[in-house]
Amino acid sequence: MGQDLKRTLSLPDAISIVAGSMIGCGIFIVSADIARQVNSGLLLIIIWLVAGFITMCGGLSLCELASNITEEGGQYVYLKKIFNEQIAFLYGWTLFLVIQTGTIAAVCVAFAKFFGILVPFINTENLLFHIGFIKLSTQQLFAICTVIFLSYINSRGIKYGVITQNIFTVTKVLSMAGLIVIGLLFGFNAHVLQANFHMPLNFGFSTINIMAVAIVGALFASITWNNITFIAGEVKHPQKNIPKAMICGVSLVVALYLLMNMIYLGVLPFDAIQTAPQDIVAARTMSEIFGTIGKDIIALIIMISAFGCANGMILTGSRVYYKMAKDRAFFRPLALINRKTKVPVNSLWAQCIWICILILWGNYSELLDFVIYASLIFYILVTAGIFVYRRKFPNENKKFKINNFFPVTFLILATYIVICLSIYKPLYTIPGLLITIAGVPVFHIWKKLKNDKS
């Protein structure tokens, strides 16, 4: 357990992890729900613009901590150094319980769902067994096999996980670029775009509040930009490469997301976006251009996006639990580094088992909704921590310092969104807080056991 992780990841690898972890299924789906909430084409594009701006501010802000604190573990390490062990543990606890694992479970089920469009045998109705409340569908089994396969690839060594990540990141970026070009050349209609942008709009304070609630979908279509910090201990020259990877990766994804939504608005009437079958706006857009084959094209692209996203999150998430175990804040065996592969294999497989349980349980998506609120609070905490870090460690050699505009802007906008969610969607906030707060007694039990053994 005394071995450390090796720094083998280059700048292109780091950019691939940032962009590949961010691009999942959200961009192809969430615009339908946002459109229903804001009921305006102009507001839809403003939502994505603001979400991109917030994401950029958050990513740039985190660059300061990432370039100065270069250990693996990301936000867990930052919160521990800036505040205390308990806040850091609560973040790691929530990350393991549902933020990271729940997201991976959701993405892998989405992968299985869209695979089912091409192979109808894979679906929720096709049950392999059903005893009482325990049931297993072919879709769940396929999702579980996907998680196990990706965990196995990453357990063989970081180069295998990174090669997989690079292949799928390049493929899905090119696929999205292809969709944008196809939409622009063969489906784009200036009259449709103009009609969507000139819908009746009463812009006031209530509209701003609606946008603050609706923006959650757009934010969480790209919320995993922080995953590169989890694996900072394996990035070469992290002081330079992590900020560069964040800036390049986030900029690329934000630009793609904006262009994709412009294509939606330029091809489809607004009511078609709002009522897209199963909310898959991208499929409805491609069907408008290619007919029924468009659905199969999008299914394949979403599968590629989901697979690459899940791989990136499996690769990076395991490093946080490894770091917690190394700090004796989690199960000690998870700190094991395999002598041959140089990866935290126990952490990878523990993560794999919990993801599979969430997939079998079937309520992971509800947990994911609940924890959105708690996740935003941790982002606010770590961003505010930048100013605490500067005061607490004034004599440290600062490798990178961000302009105050970015963290302050992020704090203001993210806090406003949290307040609006608290008022308008309390069912998303209270359970999310309870999941996090449930870690408080666990932390004290763990600390007592740790003290008893020392």
Question: What would you say this structure looks like, in words?
Answer:
By secondary structure, this protein is an all-alpha fold. 75% of the residues lie in helices and 2% in strands. Strand 1 and strand 2 form a beta hairpin. The chain has a two-stranded antiparallel sheet. The protein is globular.
Count of discrete alpha- or pi-helical segments spanning 4 or more residues: 19
Oligomer: single chain
Average pLDDT for all residues: 89
What are the low-pLDDT stretches, counting only 5+ consecutive residues below 50? none
Shape: globular
Work out the number of β strands.
Answer: 2
The main pleated sheet reads as: 2 strands, antiparallel
Helix-strand sequence: HHHHHEEHHHHHHHHHHHHHH
- What strand line-up does the widest sheet have? 1-2
Query: Ends: how far apart?
Result: 17 Å
Return the structural class.
Answer: mainly alpha
Rg, alpha carbons? 22 Å
Specify the helix fraction band: over 70%
Measured by DSSP, the beta-strand proportion falls in under 5%
